[in-house]
Amino acid sequence: VYGQSIGATRILFSRFIFPFAVLPHCAACLLFPLTPSTLLPISLLSFAFLGSVPTVDLAARHAGLAGVVLHSPLMSGLRVIRPTTQRTWCCDPFPSIDKIGRVRAPTLVIHGGMDEVVPFSHGQQLAGACGGETETLFVSSAGHNDLELYPEFCDKLADFVQKLARSSASRE
């Protein structure tokens, strides 16, 4: 059952990881410490929608990631339910917009222009506030749950990962 693990284990990460769960929560449940030495095998973090929150938090706190992919990310929880909100309030549990400037890893922000769950402006503003090199894929006709159906989604993602791999190989 999700969140109920009481066992201890080591997680082996592949060179490129595309988790779609909340890494910090899972790591805590598995008693897996998130330290620079355990994060070193991670080259790429990618989360969609609500998972973009721990991704930004993790990437802002840990240098050494090769890249970050934010898929339909939200600036903050409060800004999703109250779109006119212009600042972060103490009651906002997900202030990614306040953390994204500390992300130094190359970042790809992907968002659909017709997103009916997270306003398109969230992806635009997060991309603009990112602290490192940022690429974007904004698909004007895509919604929240159909971005993967557009050929440019896979093309851009593949290009981004290949660029990270080339960059990593040139540093070795």
Q: How many strands appear in the DSSP assignment?
A: 4
The string of secondary-structure elements, in order, is HHEHEHHEHEH
Distance between the termini: 41 Å
The total of helices stands at: 7
Strand order of the largest sheet: 1-2-3-4
Structural class: alpha/beta
- Helix residue percentage: 25-40%
Notes on the protein architecture:
The protein has 172 residues and is an alpha/beta fold. Helices cover 35% and strands 13% of the residues. The protein has helices at residues 23-29, 36-39, 52-61, 77-81, 96-99, 120-129, 151-171, and strands at 44-48, 67-71, 107-112, 134-139. It has a four-stranded parallel sheet with strand order 1-2-3-4, with helices on both faces. Strand 1 (44-48), helix 3 (52-61) and strand 2 (67-71) form a beta-alpha-beta unit. The termini are far apart. 32% of the residues are buried.
